[in-house]
Amino acid sequence: MSKSIKLAKMAPEEKKNDAVSLTEQRLHQLNAIKAKGIDPYPVRFLGKRDILDIRNEYFGIKNDQTPQEDAQNVTTAGRVVAIRDMGKAQFLQIQDQSGKIQIYAGNKTLNEEDYFVLTHLDLGDIVGVKGRPFRTQKGEASIHAESLKILSKNLAPLPVVKEKEGETFDSISDIELRYRQRYIDLAVNPDTRATFQLRSAIIREIREYLYEKGFMEVETPMMQAIASGAAARPFQTHHNALDIELYLRIAPELYLKRLIVGGYEKVFELNRNFRNEGISTKHNPEFTMIEIYQAYADYNTMMDLVQDIFEMLALKLLGKTEIPYGKTASNGVEHIISLKKPWKKIEYLESIKEKTGLDFAKFLSDENPSAKEAKKMASSIGLKADTLNTFWEVVDLVFSERVEVELIQPTVVMHFPKAISPLAKSIPGNPYLVERFEPYIMGREMGNAFSELNDPLEQELRFKEQAAQQASGAEETMPTDEDFVTALKVGMPPTGGLGIGIDRLVMLLANKASIKDVILFPLLRPQK
RNA sequence: GAGAAGCUAGCUCAGUCGGUAGAGCAACUCCCUUUUAAGGAGUGGGUCCCGGGUUCGAUUCCCGGGCUUCUCACCA
Q: Element (H or E) spanning A6, and its range?
């Protein structure tokens, strides 16, 4: 029964304490449990209550109550995260998805089989407990175990995390381990669990908000013969039976607008998009975006919608519209972001002029403004744009470098040049600017919206302009989708569309500096 | 794709001006039935990321490679 017996059974070569034998030691524990006739991986453990639920009922939400002496037994379960061995009794801490609680267990209340389990427990094991809630002499909320069942034996030891008064000791800081083996990160770091619970809540609240407003969620192809609807490099794949090349979608936009053509008036899709581009703290090759389309609406409708959604999420999930951001960011500067609407609105070209003195608006009427000219202007304020090939790409560089980075508080940037907005409708009476806006928070683009272009002939022209821009060396342009033009010919009502990057939204609300912190399994280079 | 930093025990980290390494926690043995970063006594544990080179000798110096992080570029 004692641990010395186990050791006596171990072959000498198993006594080594290196990395391999750590698992071997546990295998030995496992075999001892099996030899006792106990199943270390039982089929089921029913009637488990959440630890938080038990705490609230017996110890009070503020942890200021003490259970009655004759309190009923409760049943719960979780992973063993701490063992304090007192000899013939032990204190365990178990953790489930809702929280932690202490278990007090000894040979006075456990039967022989359960006591055997107790003395053969390791950190990381999952146990089921039945017992009476009570407070120890030191006041710790506990369960006095009357039965203790092993539900799953831990064979791959977890990092040991200790904490005192909220401070964590020896947590895992190896970022690679946290991303590659997220199950360990989740098992060990409460903050990681909280982040992904928040992510789930954000997505749920957005869906419910839109359902409430009469929107319908749809699913459009992720595998597309033409990857359009945005300007980005796609992933390519192959369908064997049809023997065709397919692309993973870079945006659902053109399909969603086909649905508006078909007669649905309020649709959205919240799902993955794929872009074959670099990986950074703000980019993962697969990322989640929501696109929302509403017929008989315009970009003003979308402006209200995006502010409503952000404000609603902050209030519902964080309880306030003023939220901190940046404490964990690399620069260490904390900002208080106010998501309260209405947000500040600025004009795209005007904002560049204000910040830099450069006036690009006068080039709007120019059919094919020279990139050289723009580069000259950019270099006059110290910006190098050597790798760019078109006028408006250079302008966008100036915007990102001098305007975007300063948009800490929520700001709506409006009215982009038509040349870089091939799917947006022109402002009436202004042939050069479009009814488009992008919300920015913390210097980051959080979305993109416009009054959707529904003139098929105009759309055809815009696609042609994109092709021409590509010919003149633009890095990324939007491919022509003939069938989409055909759809517009059938007739699409005036429509407003909005896209929001969900990952970045979660980063904002969860106060995370890296997109990898809000994606459960971010793409990493495979280990050799 | 470019630059910078990092990689040492299961975890968090020291360290070696070149002589094959330490701490705390974890693990193992013993004591302990209200402890809590439990405590006390003892023990073991390392391909110092990988491969070359220089050297009597490399974890350390040099070269190459791997992976990660950060910054930049592209995108959301």
A: helix A3-9
Distance A41 CA to B29 C1' (A): 28
User: Is the distance between the Cβ of A516 and the closest atom of strand B smaller than 7 Å?
Assistant: yes
> Residue A336 CA to chain centroid, in angstroms?
21
Query: HEC states along A247-314?
Result: EECCCCHHHHHHHHHHCCCEEEEEEEEECCCCCECCECCEEEEEEEEEECCCHHHHHHHHHHHHHHHH
Residue A331 has pLDDT above 70, yes or no: no
Q: What CATH number matches the domain at A196-343+409-517, 3.40.50.720, 3.40.640.10, 3.30.230.10, 3.30.930.10?
A: 3.30.930.10
Q: Does any strand B atom come closer than 7 Å to the Cβ of A106? A: yes
**A300 pLDDT above the threshold of 60:** yes
- Which window residues (470-489, chain A) lie with Cβ within 7 Å of strand B? 475-476
- Average the pLDDT over each of A161-165, A247-251, A443-447, A448-452 and give the range with the smallest value: A161-165
Q: Is the CB of A465 under 7 A from strand B?
A: no
Residue A182 has pLDDT above 50, yes or no: yes
